[in-house]
Amino acid sequence: MSFVRNQWYVAAYGTEVGRELFSRTVCGESILFWRTEAGEITAMADRCVHRRFPLSEKPSNLVGDTVVCGYHGFTYGADGGCVAVPGQTRIPRTARLATFPVRERDSFVWVWIGDKERADESLIPRAPWLDSPDHTTVWGMEPLKARFMLLVDNLLDLSHETYLHGGYIGTPEVAHTPITTEVDDETGVVYVSRHMDDAECPSFYAKSTGIEGRIVRWQDIEYFPPCLYLLHSRVAPVGVYPKDDGTDTDAFHVEVVYAITPETENTTHDFWAVARDFALDDQGVSDFLHDNNRTVVLQDVVALDKLEQVIATEPDGYQELSINIDTGGLAARRILKRMAEEGAPREQVAR
Ligand code: FES
Ligand SMILES: [Fe+2]
Asked: Which ligand lies nearest to the CA atom of residue 60 in the structure?
C-alpha cells in the first residue's frame, strides 16, 4: 500500500526537537525540525536546494533563526526561504525549501503530509493524558523494519498478548475472551473492546498497581487512522466495577498510546507511551512500566521485523486466513484503503 497522504502524522516528541537540527523521515519525506529562538517549531525539507546536502548533517548548523548548509553555505530562514548564497548577492527565485504544516499537541509533534491547503489542525486526534498533571507518563520510540500495516494489524488484535507477551502483559484470558468491534464509517474510527471479568493479573499490572489476586481487566481500543492508537486499560480487583454515578475511583487506569508513523514503505516509527492515574510520584513504578513496556514493544518489533522479511519474499501477494480476532484489523485496512484513495492525486484513485 502506498502512503496515506493528506493526514497528520506524529514525527517526534516535542522534547526531541530543540536548538539542534533534527531530522526524521515521515512517509518517505526527509524532514528537518528545529525551534526558533522564540521556541516555535519549524518543519522543512532536509535537503539543501543547491546540491541536496542534508541540512541535518554537520557541519550544517543553526545561526539565530537561520540554517546554514554545511557544504557551501546556502542559508535559510524559518519559512524555508533562502536568505544568503555564497559568492553573489542575487538569490535565485526558486531557492526555497519545501515546508510542512507542523503543530505540537499532547507532547507530540504532528506534521501534515500532503497538500498544505488541506491541513486542518482540528483534524489532529488527541491524547490529552500525555501532558496532563493527573497522569504520569513514560514513553519511547522504537524503529521498526516492517511496514506500517503490520503494526496496525498487531495493535488491533491484542489476542497476541497471550503468546508473544506471555509473562509480561499476556495471560490466557486475553486470547480466550471474544472481542466486540465497531467502526464509525463517518469518522473512520475503529473501536475494539475486550472485557475480562475474572482474569489472571499479569506482572505488568500486579507490580505497578500492587493488586494481589485476580482482576477485572478491560481493554477498549480506539484507533484513529492512520496514526493514533489509544488503548484504554482498566484494571481492578475481581468484582470492582464503575459506580452507578459513573465514577471509577477504585480502579486503576492506564492509557496506552501509540503513534504509528510510516518512515518508508517498509519501515515504521513505533511511538509508545503509557500514562497512568495512580502512583503518580512513584519513580519505581515509572521505571518498571517504562522498562516492561519497552520490553513488550521490542517483542513486537522482533516479530514484525521477521514477518516483514517473510512477506517481502512473496511480492506477488500472500495468502492469509482471517478469523474473528482479526475483525478490527480488517476494518482498519478497509478504512486505510479508502483514505489512501481519497488522499491520492485524482488519477491514482481506483475506479
Ligand atoms: S549543498 Fe548546500 S550549499 Fe551546496
Ligand atoms: Fe504486542
From this structure: 1
**Dihedrals φ, ψ of 121, to 5°?**
-70, -15
> Hey, is 291 helix, strand or coil?
helix
Q: Give the pLDDT confidence of 139-160 residue by residue, as tens digits.
A: 999 999 999 999 999 999 999 9
Chain segment 209-238, per-residue pLDDT in tens:
999 999 999 999 999 999 999 999 999 999
Question: pLDDT tens digits, residue range 69-92?
Answer: 999 999 999 999 999 999 999 999
Residue 253, H or E segment = strand 252-264
Residue nearest to atom 3 of ligand 1 (CA): 72
Question: What whole-number distance in Å separates Cα of residue 164 and Cα of residue 204?
Answer: 14
Asked if residues 155 and 169 have their Cβ atoms less than 8 Å apart, the reply is no
Taking CB atoms and a 6 Å cutoff, what residues make up the pocket around ligand 1?
A: 48, 50-51, 53, 69, 71-74
pTM value is 0.96
- Of 135, 331, 197, give the one whose Cα is nearest residue 339: 331
